[in-house]
Specification:
By secondary structure, the chain is α/β, with parallel strands linked by helices. The chain has twelve helices and seven strands. The protein has a seven-stranded mixed beta sheet with strand order 3-2-1-4-5-7-6, sandwiched between helices.
Amino acid sequence: MSDGQNGKFEERKWPELPEPLLTETVRKLHAAMENEWDSLRQSACQTAAGRAMWKHVINDQLAELLAGETYLRNFYDKIKKDLNNNAREVSGVILAVRTLWFDSKIEASLNSFDGGASQVVLLGAGMDARAYRLSCLKESDVFEVDFHEVLQMKTTILQAAAESASSHQQILITAKSLNRVAADIRENNWLQKLQISGFVPEKNTIWVLEGILYYLSNSNAMEVLKIIADSCNLTRTVLLADFMNKPSTTLSSSMFNFYSDWPDHLLPSLGFTDVKLSQIGDPDAHFGLLHDPSNLFNKLRSLPRSLQTHPDDGTPCCRLYLVQASGSPSQAIPLSTNSL
């Protein structure tokens, strides 16, 4: 088996970059992002770079183009260092597992709708390319929600690449439709902007919150989750999200804010009726990418989730929870009332 088949990293060579990425137009666009964007917006390119470096398991043909050479080089250097040091966990493995988990849950959730019109909303979409790479979205309307400048830059890069490519390299969406919605989910008008862009609250909907919640304040994150939970009263609703626990926020105290040690308790309190939680390394969050049985994730999974520090060495127990929650009008949790 090759590393592309079993998901294991062998010797990594610097990838041959796609021709559109090397054009002067696209290079200038990426230079502008590197010089003008803050760290939150730049994280979109870093995520794309991680997916590009793990393209032997993630089918994302646009990741390199959307990441840019600088972020690709930075990620490549981290991976090369890990391989040289025989690290148990290679840089980007969490991102790779997370991406594949979301991909698989999106497809499974769409299949659970048993046909009919459906929508997929990606909050904080960044440089996500699922609308171009997931065939399961062929009957779904996809909405990408993010800052205006992020979506505008993404659109401009893809247009520039399409103009530079030959006819057999056209960039085509696989989704039924793709709508980009410029909105800041920290503000109170993002749902209105989403509806103006064609989102129908009564249609079956999958909400994808990948790598976004922990950047929000507690109040902003809770408001977003409550809005999505309220949609369970209107239609079949699926939430796919990743949550950091409290120790994980210490990895970047200037960037990470919201956390939940028990999202499987939090979400039912908001109105979701079916919640399933996974950790990196669980059977549905492994994908053959964690080869060393002594890897960090297996160690964490063997410990009670209530522990904040590891009993052996006192290091923080940093966990990332992958959570699927759902609800529908027929499953709505009734409000308790006091008898007169």
